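Quick question: what would this complex look like in 3D?
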Amino acid sequence: MSFDIDVVRRLGDTRVALAARVGEGATVLFGRSGVGKTSVLNMVAGLLRPDTGRIVVGGETLFGDSDWGGIDLPPERRRAGYVFQAARLFPHMRVRANLLYGAADDVELTDRTAFLGIAHLLDRWPRSLSGGEAQRVAIGRALLSNPRFLLLDEPLSSLDHARREEVMQAIEHVRDVLKLPILMVTHDPEEAERIGTQIVRM
Ligand SMILES: Nc1ncnc2c1ncn2[C@@H]1O[C@H](COP(=O)(O)OP(=O)(O)OP(=O)(O)O)[C@@H](O)[C@H]1O
């Protein structure tokens, strides 16, 4: 599945612009702070509207300005799984309820929790989880919503070395075994090198 992204959006004094066409696997958006990486993910997710351009994922137009058919699919029809820098779990729900939020059913729960190494955490509250555990639950929640692709915004940046390795392996599993297309933001060159099938510099 390819991402074909050609967007411009002005935010205050910053002009966020990206033109990239990428293929299978994981695409890493790499660039200095403030260049607009998160804004690009938000545009792909449907949370931020580009001023001009188009976003096509797997041949389906998610957004197209008036020159491209005037299309703007709402976020729920884009079917993006979005994982943020901080896990952003619902604090009033146990891990199981967090995972199943947005899931049509629980048929994949066992499989997903097994490879993410979180099966033993289902009855825990988010506040009792380590950063790495919480981030793996956030990835599980995104996967269980049956997404067509994953958006990962610096999912490792708040973690120490050991926790980073756990989450990195989970992302590699999604890329290599589930073969779900990934668009991931990082400003860590080592992470970009390891996760990225292709790297797009902004
Ligand atoms: N609502 C807003 N109003 C004005 N400027 C904004 C707004 N939202 C974002 N910006 C600016 O747009 C630019 C892009 O922000 P964005 O968060 O996309 O960058 P980034 O590359 O993800 O940065 P970082 O690596 O620090 O997370 C920044 O300069 C930011 O200050």
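Answer marked as accepted. Helices lie at 37-45, 75-78, 95-100, 109-116, 131-144, 161-178, 189-195.
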